[in-house]
Structure formats: structure tokens, C-alpha cells
Amino acid sequence: MSTGAQYVVAVYGVVLFGLLMYVLVLGLRTARLAREAELLARLAEREDEARRAPEPAATP
Amino acid sequence: MTDARPGRRLAATATATAALTALAVYGVFFVAPEDADQGIIQKIFYFHVAIAIGSLLAFLVACVYGIRYLRSRDERDDEVSSTAVGIGIGFAILVVITGSIWAKASWGTWWVWTDPRLVTFLIVLLLYAAYFVLRSSAEGERRMRYSAIYSIAAFASVPLSFYSVRVARSFVHPVVFTQNGANMPDSMLVWFAVSQLAVIGVFLTIMQVELLQRRADKALRRIKLRLEAAA
Questions:
Q1: Is residue B18 part of a domain?
Q2: What local confidence, expressed as pLDDT, does residue B5 receive?
Q3: How far is A57 from chain B (nearest CA, A)?
Q4: Cβ–Cβ gap B102/A11 under 8 Å
Q5: Cβ contact (<8 Å) for A7 and B217?
Q6: Which of B179, B166, B192 is nearest to B50 (CA)?
Q7: Which residues are bridge partners to B54 per DSSP?
Q8: Do A26 and B209 touch (CB under 8 A)?
Q9: Does residue B114 sit within a domain?
Q10: Is 0.90 exceeded by the ipTM?
Q11: B177, part of any domain
Q12: Domain count, chain B
């Protein structure tokens, strides 16, 4: 490969690397959103269960 | 019911962008003629200049939405403005790196401090990098107002960078687009146009992804607040 071609590959490699880094950041952010959504879903389910649980029977 | 249109819009934009990028890469490397003077190194031009114009367009969008925010006080305008600045900075960093590699290949040096185009573009990049410092220093409505004002003020540096190379007498950076039109044959210009459209597509795709993420983030925060209030 000629020196000129090496520079061209380096430039397009930098652009590709930049895009891949963005995808990585995007993936990390999406993972955080998924974790938060899961946590909130669990909290909501717990709330639901607590509401459905029978009242404790009154002792004589 | 939730609005599914943003998701569909994103899918359409991303598909069109992917197709345009593939077409641009094919055209640049397999169809466009090799430059008689620079040889294969000139292939850097297609994406380097397209990304540079893309970054300046992103700053223009940030400025327009900054003005819109100041008139409407709508949070969504602030979101678009700040997202556009972020993408513009990302593009500008790519421009500086790819430009440096091109300079090394073409002029034998990574950077020329006496060239107005290179220096003014770096100033534009640093000015916009300060945007996020300012943004993180304030909260609530003040944060959005300051950001909008800054995005409008910082845009003044964009024409400075654009015209510097045309006004200055001593420079090494070539001027491709002059008042007499593009300084290249049509067989190159057409592939540059495709590359430019691909870069604009990347900008629009990233913008939509970022706005969708912010929408999801805000929705989760709303649920969290409701659950905390109910507990």
C-alpha cells in the first residue's frame, strides 16, 4: 500500500472509530435506561402486591 | 397511547443515511477520478469537507433553536439546541483530526499555526466546547436561557472561520467553493454532494436518537417521582 493510501485509510478509520465510540456511548446509556426501567417495574410490582395483600384479621 | 412516529422517522432516516453512506463510499473510491495533483490523498476531501460543513450546519441549528427557545421558552427547543451543539463538537473534532492527517500527507506537517482556516476552526471548536462548561454551571430555566444565548453568540465565530480563508492573503489551505462555483470537475462534485447528504443524514439520525433517549429518560423520571410520591 502506498503512503498516500495509508493516510486515506487512517482518515476513514478515524471517522469509523468516532462512529463506533458513539455507538459504545449509546449502548452504555441504553443499558442505564434499561436498568432504571427494570428497577421501576419492580417497584411498581411491589406496590401492586402490597395493595392486593389481605388486611390482617382483627384479634378478639 | 404513546406517539410511535419518532421511532418510525428514526428508522426511515437511518435507512436512508446507511444507503447514502454506502453509495458515497462506493462513488468516492470506485467511480470518482483520482486528482491529478494530489493523487489518492485527495479522497480525504470528500468526507473531511462534508463533515466540516456538517459541523457548521449543526451550530446553525443550535443557534436557530436557541433563538426559538428564547421566544417560546419551550424545553424541547433547548433540547434540540444543546443536542446540535454536542453533535457539532463531535463533527468538529473529527474535522480537526482528519484535517491534521491530510495536512501531514499533503504539506508534510500535522498543523500550520499561521493558516487562518485551521486556527479559526480550532477557535470555533474551543468556543463550543465551553458551551457545556457554561451549561453545567447553571440549573433549571437559567441553564436553558444561558445556553440559548451562548449558542447564538458563539455562532458569530462560524462566518469568521468560513470567510477567514477567503479574506486572508497568506494561506496554505485550499479554497474549494469560490464565488465562481466549485473548484473541481463535475465527476468529483457529484460524489462530494452524495457524501454531504450522507453526513447530513448522520447528523439527523444522531439528533433523533439523542432526542428519543432524552424522551425515555424524562418518562422514567416521571414514573420514579410518581412511585416515590405514592410510597
A1: yes
A2: 86
A3: 23
A4: yes
A5: no
A6: B192
A7: none
A8: yes
A9: yes
A10: no
A11: no
A12: 1
